[in-house]
């Protein structure tokens, strides 16, 4: 673990891998140090903002012990998906299997929201499965709201129409981000997600 200053009100905690990030984030948010304002996880880091002293925060962060098994500790939600994405066939070819097998793998895995970013409500979901899907060579200028996609080790759901280079395998009608809802974002770090095959729609 390495601590780096990020301005005069935050420290960036560098960790070894995504599992350690999830464990560290879970432990930190379960018992946050005094004066912590915000905790933001990413793929290999956790950014911690404070209203107090960075020296005090540094000592507190060094004392945090990541929680083992944090990937399976959060609450679970189910997301129904119509698996008719434009890139489903390409993903199947990349994996050397049929489209039906891609769907079976995607729905069999339990996914965890590792961190959020890119757009409000967009969660980077990871699983224990072996996913390594390259992004599209040419990103789309418009990916529809609710598109379910894969890129690298992650799965995600586009919360609104936007450009994107992930491989689209399906779509959901569930509103991942709704500014009139509290909380607005359905996905938050640590939440577990299971995708459910909703048929052809």
From TrEMBL:
Residues of the Carboxyltransferase domain: 1-187
The name this protein goes by in its record: Allophanate hydrolase subunit 1
SUPFAM superfamilies, A to Z: Cyclophilin-like (SSF50891), PH0987 N-terminal domain-like (SSF160467)
Name of a matching Pfam family: CT_C_D
Entry keywords, A to Z: ATP-binding, Hydrolase, Nucleotide-binding
Record carries keyword Oxidoreductase: no
GO molecular function, one term: hydrolase activity
């Amino acid at each position: 673990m390495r601590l780096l200053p990020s301005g005069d009100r935050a420290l960036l905690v560098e960790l070894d891998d995504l599992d350690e990030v999830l464990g560290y984030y879970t432990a930190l948010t379960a018992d946050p140090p005094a004066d912590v304002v915000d905790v933001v996880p990413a793929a290999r880091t956790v950014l911690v903002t404070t209203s107090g002293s960075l020296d005090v925060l540094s000592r507190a962060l060094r004392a945090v012990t990541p929680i083992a098994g944090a990937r399976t500790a959060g609450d679970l939600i189910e997301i129904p998906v119509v698996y008719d994405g434009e890139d489903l066939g390409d993903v199947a070819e990349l994996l050397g299997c049929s489209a039906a097998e891609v769907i079976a793998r995607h729905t069999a895995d339990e996914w965890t929201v590792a961190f959020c970013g890119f757009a409000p409500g967009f969660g980077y979901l990871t699983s224990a499965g072996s996913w390594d899907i390259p992004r599209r060579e040419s990103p789309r200028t418009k990916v529809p709201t609710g598109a379910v996609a894969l890129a690298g080790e992650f799965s995600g759901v586009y919360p609104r129409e936007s450009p994107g280079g992930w491989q689209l395998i399906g779509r959901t009608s569930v509103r991942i981000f709704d500014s009139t809802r509290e909380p607005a974002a359905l996905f938050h770090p640590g939440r577990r997600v299971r995708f459910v095959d909703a048929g052809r729609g």
